[in-house]
Amino acid sequence: MVLDTFVQILDVLINVIVMLVIVQFVIGLLFSFNVINSGNDFLMQIYRSIDALLRPALDPIRRAMPATGAIDFSPMVLIIGLTILQIVFGNLAAAYY
């Protein structure tokens, strides 16, 4: 019972983090292709806030990965790692019962 609750809470947290990564990626693309001016204070503040939340998770991945030039693969690695974690804990909870 407690393990199931823990897995459900972990699922919600992982889903929130994945959504934040996707939102940051989309806003970054909009800025990069000049669809939205980077002088837009509202979106820039959202981008900075999300970056501040994700930086502790992304920085260790960035340090461990080889340099790939202008493309940053750390958000993709984070999403894959969190998804694997979600699957492992879900299967552990299912096997426990």
Give a written overview of the molecule.
The chain is mostly helical and 97 residues long. It has a domain at 1-36 and 74-97. Helix content is 80%, strand content 0%. It is built from three helices and no strands. It is elongated, with a radius of gyration of 16 Å. The protein starts with a helix and ends with a helix.
Distance between the termini: 9 Å
Rg (CA only): 16 Å
How many beta-strand runs?
A: 0
Major sheet description? none
Sequence of secondary-structure elements: HHH
Count every helix, treating DSSP H or I runs of 4 or more residues as helices. 3
Shape: elongated
Q: What is the percentage of strand-forming residues?
A: under 5%
Broad structural category: mainly alpha
Query: What average pLDDT do the residues reach?
Result: 93
The low-confidence runs, each spanning 5 or more residues with pLDDT under 50, are: none
Percent of residues in helices: over 70%
Secondary structure blueprint with pairings:
Layout: H1 2-32, H2 41-64, H3 74-96
Helix pairs in contact: 1-2, 1-3, 2-3
Task: Summarize the model shown.
The chain is mainly alpha-helical and 97 residues long.
Summarize this structure as a short list of keywords or feature phrases:
single chain, 97 residues, mainly alpha
